From TrEMBL:
Organism: Paractinoplanes toevensis
Listed SUPFAM superfamilies: NAD(P)-binding Rossmann-fold domains
Any single Gene Ontology cellular-component annotation: cytoplasm
Ranges for region Disordered: 116-138
Protein's name in the database: 3-beta hydroxysteroid dehydrogenase
GO molecular function, one term: aldehyde dehydrogenase (NAD+) activity
PANTHER family: NAD(P)-BINDING DOMAIN-CONTAINING PROTEIN-RELATED, PROTEIN YEEZ
Domain NAD-dependent epimerase/dehydratase, residue spans: 3-222
Pfam family, one: Epimerase
């Protein structure tokens, strides 16, 4: 297939290009700068110069392709407008892809998040839809659910659209700004590793190379209107993650009382997230797409030499 990929220079994106080329596909990546163009060429992709703000350009690129994998996101808007602004910028992009691909049956695979189906008190599955989004969700991660819902809705217009929900913690040797990097930086800054309350809340994780395989399989053979879970570790207690980081850094590990002052005091803007529990199942993804994670799990991958370089 001739695949159009956005976000090919990002953490997940840089693995998907190699994954697609190794499977015999031809990849064109969106680049908004010379640096991005050079990186995409180095990965073996063709380059299409453009920006997420150019909806006509995205439509043209989608129409020229046999399928689209969309991973780019306007993270630059986070600081000015929060998650609402990021979602508001992404929603019209999905509608633009819809215009380009309607009636073609071509695949559109977009990144989503575990957590979009809410706190269910049980592991989230691929059958749990994204929660509807309302004004009351402004400023929360739910605000982005309009994007997942728009992608799924495109199936009714003849697009083989699906959402790959990437685990909350994506890890690899090229992780620059992911959740693990932030936890490690916080621990170094504070001189100890914190976990909220009893730390029994569960976090899911995936190696981005395994996530890339889910994205490819969804593109190649995933039915329309489906959610897939790119999840390797289905639920690790937060305390275990904190203890693993503490043992590598030689720092004490301590509970942070879950009150309104203490959690933000340690975790800052991550405070609303770290107290959540996000167990997630990957069973339907494995069974339907024939996917199996092959890379190290989160705790083993802490010793990949990237997170804690020797010395
Ligand atoms: N745990 C996770 O990491 C996780 C979990 C759930 C969902 N996701 C989602 O998965 C997707 C990929 O995440 P990631 O961590 O791999 O992304 P990332 O490392 O932050 O990379 C962002 C990508 O978007 C591109 N981009 C940003 N603004 C752009 C613009 N205006 N025009 C064109 N390209 C632009 C960047 O290109 P440049 O190289 O030019 O900057 C880069 O390739 C995102 O939608 C994210 O929300 C991630």
């Amino acid at each position: 297939m001739r695949v159009f990929v956005t976000g090919g220079t990002g953490h997940s994106g840089s693995y998907i290009i190699g994954e697609l080329i190794a499977a015999g596909h031809e990849v064109t990546g969106l680049a908004r700068s010379d640096t991005a163009a050079a990186a995409l060429s180095a990965f073996g992709a063709k380059v299409r110069r453009g920006d997420l703000e150019d909806l006509d350009g995205l439509k043209e690129a989608a129409a020229d392709s046999d399928g689209v994998i969309h991973l780019a996101h306007r993270q630059d808007l986070l600081f000015s407008g929060g998650i609402d602004a990021v979602a508001a910028a992404e929603h019209p992009i999905m509608l633009a892809y819809g215009e380009a691909l309607a009636g073609t049956g071509k695949p559109l695979v977009a990144a989503g998040s575990i957590g979009s189906s809410g706190s269910l008190g049980r592991p989230a599955t691929e059958e749990d839809p994204a929660l509807p989004t309302g004004d009351e969700h402004k400023g929360t991660l739910h605000a982005r659910n309009i994007v997942e819902t728009a992608v799924i809705d495109l199936a009714e217009r003849g697009v083989r659209s699906s959402v790959v929900r990437i685990a909350n913690i994506a890890h690899s040797t090229t992780d620059r700004a992911g959740f693990l990097m932030q936890l490690i930086a916080l621990a170094k800054e504070k001189g100890f590793v914190g976990y909220p309350g009893d730390g029994a809340n569960l976090w899911n994780a995936v190696h981005v190379r395994d996530a890339a395989a889910v994205l490819r399989l969804a593109l190649e053979k995933g039915p329309a209107a489906r959610y897939w879970h790119a999840v390797g570790d289905e639920g690790i207690p937060f305390r275990e993650i904190a203890e693993a980081i503490g043992s590598r850094l030689g720092l004490p590990v301590m509970s942070i009382p879950t009150d309104v002052l203490m959690v933000p005091g340690y975790f800052g803007f991550l405070a609303n997230l770290v107290t959540q529990s996000y167990p997630a199942s990957n069973l339907i993804t494995r069974r339907t797409l024939g996917w199996e994670p092959t890379q190290p799990g989160l705790l083993a991958d802490l010793d990949n030499g990237h997170y804690f370089p020797a010395g």
